[in-house]
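User: what does the whole thing look like in 3D?
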Amino acid sequence: MRYAWLLLTLILLVFFLINLSLGSVSIPPIETLTILLGGEPSVPVWKDIVLDFRLSKALTGVFAGAALSVSGLLMQTLFRNPLAGPDVLGLSSGASLVVAIVVMAGVPFFFTTPYAISLAASLGCLSVFILMILVAQRLRDNASLLIIGLMVGAATSSLVSVLQFVSRAEDQQYYLVWTFGSMGNLNRQEVLTLATACLLGTALAFFLIKSLNAWLLGDNYARSLGINPNRARILIIISTCLLTGAVTALCGPIAFVGLAVPHLTRLVIKSGNHKVLIPGVVLTGSTFMLVCDSIAQLPGKALVLPINAVTALIGAPVVIWVIIRAKKIWV
Amino acid sequence: MGLSIESERIPLLTTVKLDVGFAGNLEILLFTNLDLALMPGELVCFMGPNGVGKSTLLRTLAGLHKPLHGTITVYGNKASEQSVAVVLTDKVGGNLTALELITYGRYPYLDWSLNLTQADKDSIDEAISVTHVGHLRDKKIYELSDGQLQMVMIARALAQETPLLLLDEPTSHLDLNNRVEIMNLLRQVAHKKNKAVLVATHELDLALQTADLIWLAGENKNLLKGIPEDLVLDGSFDKIFQLKGFDLKTGKVRHEAWRGVAVSLEGNGPEYLWTKNALERNGFTVSPDAQTSVQIINQRQNLLWIINKKQCASIKELLITLNSNPA
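Assistant: Here's the predicted 3D structure for the full assembly of 658 residues, as structure tokens:
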């Protein structure tokens, strides 16, 4: 078990380094390491490239990957359903809708600020979050919550379709690019915001490991062990919204990572104990995101593929392979 | 050890004017006006026909279901996770080892970080040794048989170290061996650890032989309470279960002597009982003054049945002989 942790950490560090080295200018990984450790590289401009451009992108990948994976794990446990992911509550659908309204319906919304899209996405996430908390307090049943999340998703995506139908081609293009997801456009301040949300959300999740573990036994057993399911449910939703909301607002609706990473993690960490699963998905999720991002900028080197295209392209075969090998998939 | 007959002791769990059921527009009342008491050191079997509300009452006593009216107290306090442990019929799954599942029993005593103290580990070890599941510790729960999983669930409830244990159908879907083992264990736990153990079950035979006290549900939305033997003799069981073809007073299935042939049987011990059982099951009457006589001889563990001077090496042979030669 100890070796597994060491291995996961080591893999993360290696891919962090590789991610920093790749791009339109290739930098040898050893030089990148020198730069990170405060040394002088053989080509001085490399230092600026790594520290000023690539570092914030790599860190974004680390935090976004971790955040999405933790919230995916929380949702799979909350709904006791291996198909759940960060988006089952409809958060990114909510974000998409508000972003679509701002971009395509031409609603004037802080357009003077460069944060317009981030603010719109946050607003969308927040609305759905409040809706979900209200629903969770009224309905004490997990399946109902899941269905309402899916309904919100369906309703918003049809509204978005209507908006696309009536809007100008260039606005559609702009919206489409947003839905691809991107990790390269964050400034220092935004990376810091993402990091804070990621840390807070993960810390809250870690504080909930007792409830999360007991949750796996079902409501009755959880209550017989002194867990208050309603309180736990609300706190799990808050943590998920913080994590998914921050990523969606700053990087766009990044799909698939939150669904796939918990399953990949369980391949290494064969346990249902969240005390080891949460750190596990943090490491695996960060690595997964960095790998996907590295692949996204490989071809032709000048061209960068949309991150959403890569996550599912890499993730889907891996998850299929995992399921076929393990024969059984766990929550 | 302690039985309810003996004394005036303080009840562990008490209910006052308890109404059990489901609230709502269409209120469903399952039990009304229950004044119950569970004594420490007692195994109580809670019996009744299917659908009478056994599980609901059990969950209500455990504090998992809201009572319609009335109060439930455990030593004067509200039931809590440190006073009541349950084994329910809810399906338990997941990627857990037996040990992890048993460790859940300590959750009421752990903070969010789930660090076990030595005392926690000792409780877990003791629960494991009482239930004899040590060899299953590191197995995943999906690798366990139904009986093994049930034992692990009981170990989890014991690790919770509560004065009260409530179990819902802990022996259903298990084979005879596992059923007896579990009921014996629960009896021991009640007597040796001075816990109050309430088992909802519909296994009449086992309940009659292990329970200190029976709660019988079925009439007037209330419970009949008594020791098993009294309830057998006063016909309460017959009335509530409407037994068909089972004679509770002899503990046997009733057989019709459809052949109209009587056989006298000589012998003793288990071989006598089982031979008699086989004869009656096949429609013969066993009576001492019958003409046909069967003698059982037990010579150095070799059993022989002698009928009309013919020797039979098994009961099967005896039955074939009787069939071919009626009289």
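In plain terms: Residues 261-324 of chain B form one domain. Chain B has a mean pLDDT of 89.
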